[in-house]
Every structure is written in C-alpha cells, then in structure tokens.
C-alpha cells in the first residue's frame, strides 16, 4: 500500500535535483515540438531519407543528435568545429553531403538498417532543454519477379460438405509476407482449418511463406465457393489470388487441369475437419418437436382402442 504514495514524490525528485531554468526565473524554453519523419518501410538497396523538424521559436540550437537503436550515429553542433560528427554504426551508410541539422540520408539500406531511429534536439543555454522523437523503419526485400500469391489445389467443383484442401504460397521476400485466407468472404484463422507451414528459404535469404486450408465445401452468397488468399508485407506489397468453385449435387470433384494439387509438406497433421451439424429445414414454421409417444404407440394401440370405442361411447352417453 505504501508504494501508492511514492510516485508523486518520485515525480518531484528530478525537479528538485535539476530544476529547469524557467522554474527559477530563467527564460521560458522556446523548443516546443520535435518530429521525426521516416518511411515505415524501406526497400533494401534504396536510399533512406529521415527528416527531423523542430521549432526553436528563434531560440539558439545547441545540438541535433541522431540515433539508431539508441546508438548515436550523427551529430550536428552549429557552434562547434567541425559542426558535423559521424559515428560508425552498423547498417548506417551515412551520406554526409546530404545530411545536416534537419536531414539525414543513408545511401543504401540493408537488413541491418532496420530499427528505431530517433532525433534529439537540444536547445542552447540556459535551458538545455532536449526533446526527442522516434520512428521505426522496416527494411523489406521482395524478389524482383514476385507476382501475386498462388492458391493451389482448388478444384473446379465440389459437393456440399466435401473436403476442400488448398495451399496458398506467398512471394519470395524478407521478411516473409503475411498470408490471410478468406472463405466466402469470411476471414479464416481457426487453427482447425488453417495451418501456417514453415516458410521455404532460398540461398539468397529470401523466404516464401505458405498456408494450408482444410475445410468443408459450403456455398457463399452467390451459390459458389470463393477462396481468396492475400499476401501483404508492410506497405511495400499487397496482392491477392482468388479461386471460385461450383457447388454441385451428387457426383464429386474434378481437379482442373491447370491446378495440380500442391504437395502438402511435412506439417500435414490436421485433425479431420468437423462436419457441420445437419440443418433440418422446416416449412412454414412447423415445430420440430412432434409428440413422440403417440406416434410410436398409435399404430399399436389403435386397433384395441377402435374395438373399445363403441363400449366407451355407450358408457359415456348411455349411463
Ligand atoms: C539539409 O539537407 C537537405 C537535403 O538533404 C536540404 O534540402 C536542406 O535544404 C538542407 N538544410 C540546410 C539548412 O542546409
Ligand atoms: C491467427 O490465429 C493465430 C492463433 O490461432 C494467432 O496467433 C494469429 O495472430 C492470428 N492471426 C491474425 C491475423 O489474427
């Protein structure tokens, strides 16, 4: 319980130990906003531009420091000579001629360039107020020939409730793309229906993800079965493959010549898909709870009752 009363004191401690200049009659600090603009995703081999915007309201600048994953790689100090200082950092191939107080340019990004970048702006004396902003940059690499994902193993027609087995493979990329499946417009992610297979890896380090679906054929709103696979990689790649199948009565599935069944890989350990509960169709709101006893007993009891009927009527009416 006592800890509940400590935070206010802890919050005050920095003020007491290191009072900001304006608290003891100094000038109010002018630095109000620092913002780091960075792309969310950069493609491997491409340059990366980062921009640090800040407003000193005409106050003097002391330094702008740039960090990647908390390691300083670049500093701009207008009052020092040299004004620019570069610190060697893995994944940061700094273009010094295109970097200054507000801009940083990396010539070419690698997977090591991915991480959290920040710029820290410090106002000059007396406040030395510092503000920092941070942005995360993902580095992606996509095979130059990458097309849309591929849905394999979908037949041209299925009977209702027949097993549907399909595999969707994404493009070669790093990191691997995220695959999602939609069956008749509904996102499918139940572990009993969908299994993410281990991605294949190529010699150049690119990965290809795959997802396997095992479900029962059901009709969508248009009477057909629609299977859609989406592959996405941050904001760098977003593509879709879609296959439609007819739902037929009676005779079953015929694989289409162009869609050979995919090899299903080692992780082929699905539990068998569950058969949906049979749905009884009831016309015009009739109830499905018939009086069971009369239906079972009536044929057996009817003849004796018929024989007794005259006697029953006589005893009821006559008396
Ligand atoms: C800083 O560099 C960018 C381009 O990298 C340039 O557009 C900008 O004008 C430069 N700023 C200053 C103050 O030199
Ligand atoms: C799909 O389900 C798995 C576990 O069932 C979960 O870990 C994963 O985050 C889900 N994916 C999405 C996109 O919701």
Automatic annotation (TrEMBL):
SUPFAM superfamilies: Immunoglobulin. Residues 14-130 form the Ig-like domain. Residues 250-270 are annotated as: Disordered. SMART domains: IG. It comes from Gryllus longicercus. Residues 1-23 form the signal peptide. The keyword Kinase does not apply. Keywords: Signal. This is Ig-like domain-containing protein.
């Amino acid at each position: 319980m006592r800890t509940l009363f400590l935070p206010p004191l802890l919050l005050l401690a920095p003020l007491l130990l290191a009072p900001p200049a304006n608290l003891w009659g100094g000038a109010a600090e002018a630095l109000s906003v620092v913002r780091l603009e960075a792309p969310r995703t950069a493609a491997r081999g491409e340059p990366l531009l980062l921009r640090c915007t800040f407003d000193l309201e005409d106050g003097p600048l002391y330094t702008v420091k740039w960090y990647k994953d908390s390691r300083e790689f670049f500093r701009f100090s207008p009052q020092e000579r040299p004004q620019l200082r570069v610190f060697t950092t893995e994944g940061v191939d700094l273009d010094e001629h295109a970097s200054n107080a507000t801009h940083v340019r990396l010539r070419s990004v690698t997977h090591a360039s991915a991480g959290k970048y920040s710029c820290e702006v410090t106002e000059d004396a007396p406040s030395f107020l510092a503000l920092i902003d941070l942005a995360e940059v993902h580095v992606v690499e996509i095979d130059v020939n990458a097309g849309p994902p591929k849905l394999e193993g979908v037949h041209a027609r299925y009977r209702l409730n027949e097993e549907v087995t399909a595999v969707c493979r994404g493009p070669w990329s790093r990191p691997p793309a995220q695959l999602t499946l939609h069956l008749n417009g509904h996102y499918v992610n139940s572990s009993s229906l969908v299994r993410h297979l281990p991605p294949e890896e190529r010699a150049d380090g690119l990965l290809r993800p795959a997802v396997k679906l095992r479900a029962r054929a059901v009709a969508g709103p248009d009477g057909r079965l629609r299977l859609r696979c989406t592959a996405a990689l941050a904001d760098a790649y977003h593509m879709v493959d879609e296959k439609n199948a007819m739902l037929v009565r009676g005779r079953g599935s015929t694989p289409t010549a162009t869609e050979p069944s995919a090899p299903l890989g080692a992780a082929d350990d699905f539990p068998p898909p569950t058969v949906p509960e049979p749905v009884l169709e009831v016309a015009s709101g009739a109830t499905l709870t018939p009086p069971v006893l009369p239906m079972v007993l009536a044929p057996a009891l009817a003849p004796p009752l018929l024989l007794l009927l005259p006697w029953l009527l006589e005893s009821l009416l006559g008396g």
